[in-house]
Amino acid sequence: MRSVGVEEELLLVDAETGEPRALSAAVLAFASQGGDADVFESELHGSQLEFATHPQTDMRELAREIIRWRAEAADHAANAGAAVAALATSPLPIGPSINPGERFDWLKEQFGLTAQEQITCGCHVHVSVESDEEGVAVLDRIRPWLSVLLAMSTNSPFWQSNDTSYSSYRSRVWGRWPSAGPVEVFGSAARYHAQVDAMVGTGALRDTGMIYFDARLSAAWPTVEIRVADVCLDASTTVLVATLVRALVETAARDWRAGRPVADPGVGLLRLAAWRAGRSGLDDELINPVTMKPDRADSVVGALLAHVREALDDSGDLIPAQDAVAHLLKTGNGARVQRELFEKTGSLREMVAECARRTSAGPV
């Protein structure tokens, strides 16, 4: 069974006003006192906090760990006078709060406003692979399906007090990095590493840590890292995304071992599919990875389930995944919930406060 680990980036906010708070240093200090220093870390901006789960093979254990670390993050934030919200962008106005340090200083100097506005929170899923060769074979084969994962996770409709008309505006902001987004088929680990070396060699990127592909080989672990998703408002959506990612990796690895060819719709089409997913979420048409034509969101999600059905069945995740998809399509993802809360309350502050409560309380 392939192991799965999740990294979630959370927004630090004022518990009452919902306004962003650049308190990551203080929160990390409390985390260290509580013995959680190996779980939490800072991000580019002081209003962000990241945690990482341990590798898990049982999705129920992964769910318990995500819920636990969200609650721990909330406790540490409360000690620092803040709250945590699983929101992929701040609905309320926010200014740059870039953390000190050589790396962050370099990013600020080189990328200017792009770095200053990168106050976005994503969800990264790591799945174990046996080798770089298997990992690149997986990356080549999962490319068309990544936009569906983005659509399912969308959780950033608001930016600087405005409804952006996107379900994931985070994906639009994140795409400003020159190394972000979908990539070509590599064909081998050697070609992958050669491309990465050439990109770093341009001097435009500081190091391999700035390879911001939608999916990449991890530089630190024997995993592929899928980075396309927004941080999800509900932890159960995070678990669903992780479940589908593991099944995608297993399905791709089986196809590679069986010698099945790689579907290559081209980077241009993949960029359009990603844009459509970020725009629509689950509330309008998406681009179906099988046909690369417009299709209903529920049909596209159903196509993903069909594509990975055998792997889900073998891991014992088929029924839970089907149930979770049905629930998500019925109740909506974070983008829909945020808009519904805002329509109900008429207040972005109250909406953020409710999202912070849900983040620390666990699944609704």
Plain-language structure description:
By secondary structure, this protein is of the alpha+beta class. The chain has one domain: Creatine Kinase, Chain A, domain 2, CATH 3.30.590.20. Helix content is 49%, strand content 13%. The protein contains 15 helices and eleven strands. Helix 9 crosses helix 13. The model has no long low-confidence stretch (mean pLDDT 96). It comes from Streptomyces liangshanensis.
Write the layout of secondary structure elements.
Blueprint: E1 4-13, H1 24-33, E2 40-42, E3 48-52, H2 59-79, E4 83-85, H3 102-111, H4 113-116, E5 122-128, H5 132-142, H6 146-153, E6 158-159, E7 162-163, H7 169-174, H8 189-201, E8 215-217, E9 223-230, H9 235-257, H10 267-280, E10 286-287, E11 294-295, H11 297-307, H12 309-315, H13 318-331, H14 334-345, H15 348-361
Antiparallel strand pairs: 1-3, 1-4, 1-5, 2-3, 5-9, 6-7, 8-9, 10-11
Helix pairs in contact: 1-2, 2-9, 5-9, 6-10, 9-12, 9-13, 14-15
Family: Belongs to the glutamate--cysteine ligase type 2 family. YbdK subfamily.
Catalytic activity: L-cysteine + L-glutamate + ATP = gamma-L-glutamyl-L-cysteine + ADP + phosphate + H(+)
GO molecular function: ATP binding; glutamate-cysteine ligase activity
Q: Can you summarize this structure?
A:
By secondary structure, this protein is an alpha+beta fold. It has 15 helices and eleven strands.
What is the strand tally? 11
What average pLDDT do the residues reach? 96
**Named CATH topology:** Creatine Kinase, Chain A, domain 2
Rounded to the nearest angstrom, the distance between the terminal CA atoms is: 29 Å
- Give the H and E element order: EHEEHEHHEHHEEHHEEHHEEHHHHH
Rg, Cα atoms, Å: 19 Å
Low-confidence regions: none
Tell me, briefly, the overall form: globular
The CATH class turns out to be: Alpha Beta
- The CATH architecture comes to 2-Layer Sandwich
Work out the count of structural domains.
1
Note the beta-strand portion: 5-15%
- Mind summarizing the main beta sheet? 7 strands, antiparallel
Report helical residue fraction: 40-55%
Q: Structural class given helices, strands, pairing?
A: alpha+beta
What's the helix count?
A: 15
Family: Belongs to the glutamate--cysteine ligase type 2 family. YbdK subfamily.
Pfam families: GCS2
Catalytic activity: L-cysteine + L-glutamate + ATP = gamma-L-glutamyl-L-cysteine + ADP + phosphate + H(+)
Protein name: Putative glutamate--cysteine ligase 2
